[in-house]
């Protein structure tokens, strides 16, 4: 018997199903959205409609017991928010100490402030221990309306031009540092000095341009190296190389990408119209670039600023898989040994040919299923009749560990680390 995955549906999707069921009936809703969701699930959702309307729309369902000391929890959450708003560090010990103080003030005598209480409190309030990071992408104001406007633009373009799934594409640049060694390694417990060998190229980087289609097709990657002259080394087939003084993408780089990659896509030689999803990077939407796209009959769908984490397929799912495979290739090269040395005794970094091979192998290793699902998750290639809209809200609750997650665990400092070679 095949084990089926349990699916968890977010509250906005449940409300959408309930609204449809009220107009057309439970069985009609099951045929339209499922199955699953089954008719039984829809009946339960209709009973919970009032609760669903009042609940947090980012949650899936009503889980967990009610808070035993709600006044204390509210006060503690507010205290943590104020501390973090001012940039102060908050530790679990500080939470326990402050909770005991507030409990005394409020006359709560049965509160012990144990570590297990702190764990439950953090879990219930959506808190977690986080590592200091750079400034994350902030969602713009009224981002939900901007997402809906983008979806409407894409749907209208697909209907107006008759774009099929094989005519919808996405392109993005990924900064790549050639050598970023891990700060952690396995060694004997009593070892005092932990040395990690590097190639001395921790600050050498290039840009990888990735592009893929909603049907899973992947175009050859383009690498932009930080140099003024074109490399004399052998470039593997299936890779396009470009050079730039700073290793960045610019208008000239976009022209090269259109000529050597985009125009050679399936249907490109016949100048078959296509829809290309891009972010608002200035080289993507300059007048010179737009003219190049117009010559090859390409319609642009520009993602609103600050929403690439929601609407760009490469950012949502694909880039992480690519990064994991890239780190695997780099680790294999380091483990192989027999590296050439410079006159000063330092290890030489990987050659341009080797970096190209890493990128080619890693990009080929990204599964087509990940690409297809990422476009649907962004709401770009979903069926126009609406029967795939539920993918925007679905989240697998119990799923097998994927190959990408296994490699991420093996090749990273911890289970939650991504490939650190990418900014």
Biggest sheet strand line-up: 5-4-3-2-6-7
- Structural class by secondary-structure content: alpha/beta
The DSSP helix count reads: 15
Total number of strands: 8
Could you state the order of secondary-structure elements as H and E? EHHHHHHHHEEEEHEHEHHHHEH
The average pLDDT score comes to 82
- Fraction in beta strands: 5-15%
Largest sheet entry: 6 strands, mixed
Low-confidence stretches: 396-423
Q: What fraction, in percent, of the residue positions are helical?
A: 40-55%
Rg, Cα atoms, Å: 26 Å
First-residue to last-residue Cα separation: 44 Å
Which of globular, elongated, flat, extended, rod-shaped describes the shape? flat
What does this structure look like?
Helix 10 links the parallel strand 6 and strand 7 (298-302). The longest helix has 24 residues, at 313-336. Helices cover 41% and strands 11% of the residues. Helix 1 (11-24) packs across helix 2 (26-33), helix 9 (251-260) packs parallel to helix 10 (287-295) and helix 12 (313-336) runs antiparallel to helix 14 (368-377). The model is unreliable at 396-423 (pLDDT under 50). It has helices at residues 11-24, 26-33, 39-47, 49-54, 70-85, 92-105, 115-124, 143-161, 251-260, 287-295, 308-311, 313-336, 352-365, 368-377, 403-410; strands spanning 7-9, 168-177, 205-213, 222-226, 240-244, 274-278, 298-302, 394-396. With 423 residues, the protein is α/β, with parallel strands linked by helices.
